[in-house]
Amino acid sequence: MTASPIIKIRPQDSVGIARKNIPAGMPLETGCSTTDEIPAGHKVALKDHVTGEKVVRYGQIIGFATCDIAAGEHVHVHNLDIGDYVRDYAYCRDRREADILPDTPTFMGYRREDGRIGTRNYIGIITSVNCSAHVATSIARIFEKHVLSDFDPLESFPNVNGVVALTHKTGCGMGRGEPLEVLRRTIAGYVDHPNFSHVIVLGLGCEVNQTAGHLDFISNPAKVRFMNIQALGGTRQSIEQGVDVVRGLLDESNQSVREPVSVSELSVALVCGGSDGYSGISANPALGAASDLLVQYGGTVILSETPETFGAEHLLTRRAINRKVGEKLVERMQWWERYGNDQGVTLNANPSPGNKRGGITTILEKSLGALTKGGTTNLQEVVLYGERPSSKGLVFMDAPGYDPVQVTGQIAGGATVVAFTTGRGSVFGSKPAPTIKLASNSSLYQHMPEDMDIDCGGILEGVETINECGRRIFEMLIRVASGEKSKSEEQNFGDLEFAPWSLGPVI
Fold first, then answer.
1. What is the span of the domain harbouring residue 47?
2. Is-contact 376 294, C-beta < 8 A?
3. What domain count does the chain have?
4. pLDDT tens-digit series, residues 370-385
5. Do 401 and 454 have their domain in common?
6. Residue 427 forms beta bridges with which residues?
7. pLDDT tens, residue by residue, 161-197
């Protein structure tokens, strides 16, 4: 049987999604024919819409017609806009008892002294300020494999994944209130991260973000070494002493060995970037199915991207474990609306040119598709950027939608693996938590095979269900958590993707 040229997600949807490019004049099973060419992943009207009428996808409003739209017509930025409507938060209405699955699987992880479980074993060098970035990267480069000579300085330390320098562009010329607190909380989250055996925090010496100021934020000071370039006598002396410190830590780091631990110890960051019109049909809901499995086995998933939840937050408040959790999400959403207004932008400016070329029109549509990554379980907690959750299960972290900034916050919050869906082809990777990338369509997977870990396109073709794909994702998460390299790890991504959220003016 030939598959329908369109995908209709919910019975009440007033638009369908083109499975492939559809020429004008193509009859549709709804009784109309296409009046325009409909690009793959884009929307076609399944009924007539009058100006101002709501347009429905995922069973939810994605915007309002800005002019009359005939059945069979292409629906996109030329005739659809966000509009305004009241959402019913219905706090906790859809909360339900958690389903606990028996026979919890295990993965091979690193058990740290504080009881937390890592999936990698790195030594980190984290800068307090951009002024120490050159010295930090110079130290880390000493321990990189020398490709031309094939000499590996870490060959005698097989249990050490590497020495990574994580640098950023701030740390001085900044306010001492919330901007500094967010930066210190982020750095502390990396210092305490179970994927690091040891960390050097490297400062210049005169910056606002003084290295000593991190002590109140770090819960495990025994694993951190503080260094200041000015106190050590300058660049060369700092590099030499930094190299000596790392060499002195390698033996101890190498003593870390993997052991079987429950997947309930796993914390996964949920991310989508470079999304297209298929993301909310295939890769995102499949990741949602994997998220449900992990939560039902006692693990943690961290959903984020507050601006890319706008318009869909009412679906999370209904699943909140209590009203306070739901209200905190709404409060963060309102903060973002004020923040956008203060900066002269609307949240509907979020969909990128690539998103729109892929078929996404409004932030409401993007948010509804993005939200499916979080699965269907209760919302247990809402945390601030870089804050470590106190609950397991589905957690929401307040963060921008910009992928490197978002993921930096999620890793600071304890995520030990990152699951990243994409429809356009993001080439993101992260350290110390590895990233796996999920392609929303098979064309992307085949076009960028060295960057994509899992093909979710079978869902679009009807050869695989969302739950079957979700099970494959879950099984890969376990393998990568146990040490299997993801595609981004094979290409050594992650050194340049550390991007703490920079708040406030630069002064």
1. 1-86
2. no
3. 3
4. 999 999 999 999 999 9
5. yes
6. none
7. 999 999 999 999 998 899 999 999 999 999 999 999 9
* Tokens 């959750």, residue located: 389
Q: Do 162 and 209 fall within a single domain?
A: yes
Residues 176, 64 within the same domain:
no
Give Cβ neighbours of residue 502 (< 8 Å, ≥ 6 apart). Answer: 169, 170, 174, 179, 183
Length, in residues, of the chain: 507
Is beta strand 259-262 parallel, antiparallel or unpaired with respect to 15-18? unpaired
H or E stretch covering 225: strand 224-228
Residue 1's pLDDT band (boundaries 50, 70, 90)? very low
Confidence of residue 215 (pLDDT cuts 50, 70, 90): confident
| Cα–Cα separations (whole angstroms), residue 164 to 99, 306, 363, 491 | 39, 29, 36, 14
Higher confidence at residue 297 or residue 506? 297
Judge if 198 and 171 occupy the same domain: yes
Pairing of strands 393-397, 417-422: unpaired
Kindly report the number of other CB atoms within 10 A of residue 357's CB atom.
14
Strands 417-422 and 162-166: unpaired
Residue 367 predicted with pLDDT over 80: yes
| pLDDT score for 2 | 58
Instruction: Kindly state whether residues 132 and 6 are assigned to the same domain.
Output: no
Let me know: does 229 contact 153? Beta carbons within 8 Å.
Answer: no
Q: Between residues 162 and 311, which one has the greater pLDDT?
A: 162
Measured CA distances, 365 to 55, 224, 290, 361, 442 (Å): 10, 44, 22, 7, 22
- pTM exceeds cut of 0.90: yes
Q: Say what the pLDDT of residue 148 is.
A: 72
| Distance linking the first and last C-alpha atoms of the chain | 65
Q: Are residues 236 and 332 in the same domain?
A: no
All residues at 6 or more sequence positions from 237 whose CB lies less than 8 Å from its CB, including other chains: none
- Enumerate residues 6+ apart whose C-beta is below 8 A from 412: 185, 186, 187, 188, 189, 190, 193, 385, 386, 387, 388, 500
